[in-house]
C-alpha cells in the first residue's frame, strides 16, 4: 500500500531527542512486551501523552498491541491533541506491520481524532487510504459520517451512508442514527423515510434509543408532527433526549400548551430532565409570557446539584426580559460567573423593549468598557430601542458609531431601524433619503417602517406609494393591507378603506383578530376581541366594570372612538372599544388576583390608543401595576403613567 502524504505542523520533527529523566534512563534497554504495554497504557490514562509517545518512539523493536494504540488515540481525541495524533499516525504509517494501520478500530479513532481537530481533509485521507470499500466495516464508515456531521456537512455525511450501502455493508444502529441526523440537517424527508423503512426491515438488533431519538429529531425538523407522536408513543423505552425531541416538536409547531403538558407528563413519570429540557421550556415561557412558570423552572435550577450552562442561563435572562421582569433578569445577569456576547445582548434587548433606554445605554457602555465587543445584534437592539423611545439623535449617533467605531457593516435590519427612527420622529424626508442611498435593495421591513411613519403622521399620498411597493413584495402580508386601511380611516377616506378591504377579500386575506391572554396562578386565560360573553355577563365582571367606568370618567377619561376604523355610529364604536381583548384580560386579572400583585397581559397585535389611555386611568384608580406586552414592546402602567411616555 502506498503511504499517503500527511501535513505535519512545523513544530513536529520526525527525530525525537530523548531527555534523560529519572523515569527513562534505561529506555533503550530491551523492555519486555507486557510491561511495555502496561506502562504505555498507564501513561496514556494519566494524560501523560509526551512521555507515552517518547516510550513508543524509543522502543522500535517492541510492538504495542491494538489496545495500547487505541488508548493513545482515545486520549488524543479527549484532549483534541492534533500534534500527538499526527505523531501516532506517522508512527503507524512507518510501522512494518501494516495490520495496525488497516485495523478498523484504529482507523475509526484516527478519523475521529482529525475530525474533532477540524482537520476534515486529513480525516478523509485516512478514510480513503485505509482499506478498500469492500473491506471497510460499518464503524469506519460511521466515523467518517459523524466527522461530516460535526462540521455540518450533512450532504457529504449522507453520501458516505449511501456509498456504504452500495458496498453491500449492512447498516446497524450507529449508521442509522448518523444517516437520520444528516437528513435532519438538510430537512430531507424523502430520504429520512427511506432510512426509517430500512430500520423497520433490518435483520440485526432492534433500534436503540439513539436511533429512535434521531427519528424523532428528523420528523420534527421536517415538520411531520404526526410521525413524531407516532414514533414517540411506539418507543419501547424513552430517555430524556426522547422527551426533549418530543417537546421541541410541539414548540416548533407553535403548540405551546401541548409542549407544557408534555413537560408536566415528563415530570409526573419521573423521567428527570436535562438543561436542554429547561432551555426549551423557558423559550416557550418567553414567547407567551409565562412568568410564574418560568420562575418555577428557575427555582428548580437553583435547587439542582448540577451547574447550569451558559445556554440555560441566557434562556433565563431572555425569559425574564420578555416577561417584563427586568429586576429578576438583571439579578441573574449580575450573578453569572461567565457571560458571553449573547448574555449582554439579551439584557440590553430586555431593557430596550421595556422602554428603559437609560439602563440600556448604561449597560452598553459597561459592556464596551469591560472589553466585550458589540456585534450586529447589539446594535439592532439599541436602534430599535431608540426608535420606540423617540431618541432620533441618539439613534443616528449609534448608527454612525456602529460603522465608525466598531467596523460593523449595516445590514437590512439596521437600515430598517434607522428608517423607523427617522420616520417616527417626523423626519420622513430623511428616511426616504436613507432608503434611496442604501447599498442594497430595500426589504419589506424597511417599506413597512415607512408605511407606519405615514400612519403616525397622516401622510396619505406617500402611504399609497409605499403600499404599492409592499403589495408587490409581500402580496399575502395582512399587516400591510390593514395599515393602509387604518391610514385611510384616520383620514376619513372610507372609499379607500372599502377598496383595501375588497382587495383583501379578493386575495383571501383575513385580518388577525385581537387576542390577549393572562396567566393567573397555573392557568392561562385567553380573551378574543368582542368575545368573552360568559365572563362579561357575570355579576363580578359587571360590578368591577361599572365601578371602574364611573371612577375613570370622573377623572376625565373619554373613549377615543377614532381607533374604531369602521363607518358606524358613535354608540357602536364605544361598545366595540369596551370589548377589546386587553381590557377583558385586565378586568379578569383585577378580579382574580390580590391587591398589589402586578397584572401581566400579552396581546398578539399592537395595543390601541384608547386602550392605552384606559390602562393609565385604571392603574391610577386601582393602584395596581399593569404590564402589557404587544407585538412591538412592553407598556408598564403605574400610577397613571406608562413607561413609553405615550410614544410607541
UniProtKB/TrEMBL annotation:
Record's keyword annotation contains Repeat: yes
DYW domain sequence ranges: 556-648
Pfam families: DYW_deaminase (PF14432), E_motif (PF20431), PPR (PF01535), PPR_2 (PF13041)
Alphabetic keyword roster: Repeat
Single GO biological process annotation from the record: RNA modification
UniProt-listed InterPro entries: DYW_dom, E_motif, PPR_At4g14850-like_plant, PPR_rpt, TPR-like_helical_dom_sf
A molecular function GO annotation: RNA binding
PPR repeats: 208-238, 239-273, 309-339, 340-374, 375-410
Family annotation (PANTHER family): PENTATRICOPEPTIDE REPEAT-CONTAINING PROTEIN (PTHR47926)
The family this protein is said to belong to: Belongs to the PPR family. PCMP-H subfamily.
The name this protein goes by in its record: DYW domain-containing protein
Organism: Anisodus tanguticus
